[in-house]
Amino acid sequence: MLLGVYLKEGAKILVAYDGSTFSNRALEESIDLVKRFNGSIVILHVPWEQSDDQSRWMLLETGGRAKKAGVRYSLKSERSNNAPEKILQTANEGRFDCIAMGSRGVGGAKAWFLGSVSSKVAAEAQCTVLIVK
Fold first, then answer.
1. Which of 7, 18, 47, 57 lies at a C-alpha separation of 20 to 30 Å from 110?
2. Which residues pair with residue 43 across a beta bridge?
3. Which domains does the chain possess?
């Protein structure tokens, strides 16, 4: 994979996760990458329409997948009305090597109206961004 050129041993990947099919694929790709580079992932959920209970359940389910795969991981939930800003802030503060996310999320019409989260993150990130379809 070409992305491997940009990652190093012990790579840290921030997975922006919203429960969509594409974010599930981004999680799986991230798990494969950190296995190859003996790295770790942080799974970030930025709920803006879901309850805290729904967010916790979603993160626990994804954490179970990471645990089953045998990778180092942690879970983080940050409520915000501006998902791209929160993802970028988390990536910068955590000094991540890569942000992984789906090309489309579960935002529907609101996401279309407000602009694509993945497009904004890719345009403004200070690290490598992996956008998965």
1. 57
2. 15, 75
3. 13-116 (3.40.50.620)
